[in-house]
Each structure stands twice: as structure tokens, then as C-alpha cells.
Specification:
6 helices, alpha+beta, Pnp Oxidase, Chain A, 9 strands
């Protein structure tokens, strides 16, 4: 694609304003409300978020994961504990995630420390997963280099046979991570790139929250 075409790509966001008095009392209530509005508007996989991590060498990585838990404690997603993202999280204990709702000209950014969710929470979510997804978690050594597609297909066939007509248990190498927010920013696109940015920031002493408006 020509550079001129890229330079000419733009949308002027003509959405209504978003100010402090429009926020819910807490960040998680506001995020829950926007998530529901995105789903109602027809956003496909409205719970998708771009997760950013970094290794000990400081090199960042990002990928899309699905938010599967949201409350006052933080934002939860599930993955293989031996994956590249989990190695990063173990090393740095920090992550950020962005919910990109382009259809509504909105984004939410969550940043904070991470912790593993409890085994009980993992089991509860695991039981809600489709059987095929459960089998896939056993079959794939996530982030490991494989020779070809057949390796993956053979692995899935093997675990399908192994658990034939039996409940599929939670693998020891699989579970949830929770981002415990220190900052949660709500971004609403506005005309002339004068966007609204409202950020909840936690007080490290008593875990109270302050809301700040940021320049776009």
C-alpha cells in the first residue's frame, strides 16, 4: 500500500463528549457498562483485549486475548502457564491491556500488577468451556515451535482418544491471570482529535481512586 494512501486514512470521530460527571463510581462498573454497550452495538467479541507484556530484556510483546472475568479485583484472562506471555508475566509481574472498540470510537486501557487466579476460579471457568477448547488446551504446548500442522492435529486426536467419553480435567499447566489495575483509562474519540481521556489512578497507600483528565 502506498504511503499516500496510509497518510490519507482518517476518521473524524463525531461522538458525544465524555466527562467526569458521566463516569460510574468505580472503574470496574464503568468498564462493565462500556463492555455491555459494545456488545449491544454488535461489536464482535467485545471482551477481546490486546495484552502487552515484556520480558526481562525489556522487549515488548502483544497479542489479543479474551477477558473472562471482571470485578473490583481486576481483569482476568486464561492461558497456558508455559506460554510466552506467562513467562513474561512471571518475570516482570506487570501487564497492560487495551479493549479497542473501534465501532464506538472507544478504548479502555488497564495497567497493573498481575497475579494468578485461584485454582477454584480456574476450575469454575474451565467447566464452562466447550469440550473442544478443553481438549485443545491439553493438545497444544503453546508457543513451542512445531514441525508442521500435522503435529497439532495428531496431538488433538491423541487427547480426544485419551479422554473419550470422560470429563476433561484442568491441565496443571493451564489457568488464569488477573491484572490488578493501578490505572484504568477511558478514551472517547472526539472531533479534531481532541479526544476525551479520563483515567482512574489508584492510591498506593489506601487503594482509593482518583480520576484525572488527560490531554489527548
Amino acid at each position: 500500500m502506498a504511503e499516500q494512501q496510509l497518510a490519507g486514512m482518517r476518521v473524524d470521530y463525531r461522538t458525544e463528549g465524555f466527562d467526569v460527571d458521566m463516569l460510574a463510581p468505580t472503574w470496574h462498573e464503568q468498564l462493565t457498562a462500556w463492555l455491555a454497550e459494545a456488545e449491544e452495538a454488535g461489536v464482535v467479541e467485545a471482551n477481546a483485549m490486546v495484552l502487552a507484556t515484556a520480558g526481562e530484556d525489556g522487549r515488548p510483546s502483544s497479542r489479543t486475548v479474551l477477558c473472562k472475568g471482571l470485578d473490583e479485583r481486576g481483569v482476568v484472562f486464561y492461558t497456558n502457564y508455559t506460554s510466552a506471555k506467562s513467562r513474561d508475566l512471571r518475570q516482570t509481574r506487570y501487564a497492560s491491556a487495551t479493549f479497542p472498540w473501534y465501532l464506538q470510537h472507544r478504548q479502555v486501557h488497564v495497567r497493573g500488577m498481575v497475579e494468578m487466579v485461584s485454582a477454584a476460579e480456574t476450575r469454575a471457568y474451565w467447566s464452562s468451556r466447550p469440550r473442544g477448547s478443553q481438549l485443545g488446551a491439553w493438545a497444544s504446548a503453546q508457543s513451542v515451535v512445531v514441525r508442521d500442522r500435522r503435529v497439532l492435529d495428531d496431538g488433538l486426536a491423541a487427547v480426544t482418544q485419551r479422554f473419550d467419553e470422560q470429563p476433561v480435567p484442568v491441565p496443571q499447566h493451564w489457568g488464569g491471570w488477573r491484572i490488578v489495575p493501578e490505572e484504568v483509562e477511558f478514551w472517547q474519540g472526539r472531533t479534531n482529535r481532541m479526544h476525551d481521556r479520563l483515567r482512574f489512578v489508584v492510591n498506593g497507600h489506601d487503594r482509593s481512586w482518583t480520576v484525572r483528565r488527560l490531554a489527548p
